[in-house]
Amino acid sequence: MQGRKAIVTGASRGMGRHLAQALVREGARVALLARPSAALDSTAREIGAQALPVGCDIADPHSVRNAFAAVEEAFGGLDILINNAGMSIVGHTESYSDTDIEQQIAVNFTGPVYTCRSAIPLLRQSAEPHIVNISSESVKVPYASLSLYAASKAALENYSAALRKELRDDRIRVTVLRSGFVGGSEMSRNWDEAEQAAFYEAAMSWGNFKETGVTPAAPEDMATALVELLTLPRELNVDLIELRPLAP
To answer: Which of 147, 165, 118 is nearest to 206 (CA)?
Structure first.
């Protein structure tokens, strides 16, 4: 990873923060894309000089263009794009507001399309280009009350499959990392206690946890697996890798 240049979206907290830390430890320079916040600034300070904080709302195409222009100016190119940013709003369809619907689709699906669009011209100039789109086990095992989250991640996976064909002649690798339950996840940080209780009750009722488990994987382990993925021989493309905790 020495000298490689990467972008991680949703990098101020949770899984994104751990991914960025792992890449820097291996010698990469990493642009941390997230909405401007104290958390973004503190994460950049903690990681050190190889981390570049870039305020960006990936749901806004103009913000994405500006962020990538800033990264290109600072790094002079790009080798890796990791679309990690994601969000969920728990609830039944009839209770979703217009904003609830728009936000989940924008962050989980439309945003990665914007970032891929801006990344591709830069990745074509790289000797080791790679796009990793972070998906969710919800695609295989949809949870009640998270219908839009599951659907938006499913859209991301299908988009990735088509994008892989578009970029194959350019030798740009496109991988979906389908993640199981990870400790320290930020996905539910805006849920209130009643919403969390209702979600868990529904998941138990439908048997989701029998397949997915309830013991979280360590985010550090997930980050280590990502580094291994990024350093596989260039002759290989991993279309889809699904990682979940071994413990039930």
So the answer is: 147
Q: Residue 80: in which H helix or E strand, if any?
A: strand 80-83
**Whose CA is closest to 32, among 2, 56, 62?**
56
Residue 49 to residue 104: CA distance in whole angstroms: 32
Q: What is the pLDDT along the chain (248 residues), one digit of tens a residue?
A: 999 999 999 999 999 999 999 999 999 999 999 999 999 999 999 999 999 999 999 999 999 999 999 999 999 999 999 999 999 998 889 989 999 999 999 999 999 999 999 999 999 999 999 999 999 999 998 988 899 999 999 999 999 999 999 999 999 999 999 998 888 766 666 677 777 777 778 787 778 887 788 888 899 999 999 999 999 999 999 999 999 888 88
- How far apart (Å, rounded) are the C-alpha atoms in residues 37 and 55? 8
Please give the Cα distance from 159 to 20 (Å, whole number): 24
Is residue 215 within 8 A of residue 248, CB to CB? The reply is yes
Residue with tokens 């789109």: 133
The CA-based diameter of the chain, rounded to the nearest angstrom, is 52
Which letter, b or e, does each residue of 36-52 get, where b requires 16 or more Cβ atoms within 10 Å of its Cβ? eeebbeebbeebeeebb
Residues serving a catalytic function are: 149
200-209 b/e with 16+ CB inside 10 Å = b?
eebbeeeebb
Among candidates 20, 22, 23, which has minimal Cα distance to 43? 20
pTM over 0.90: yes
What distances in angstroms separate CA 114 from CA 21, 60, 62, 228, one per listed residue?
24, 8, 9, 26
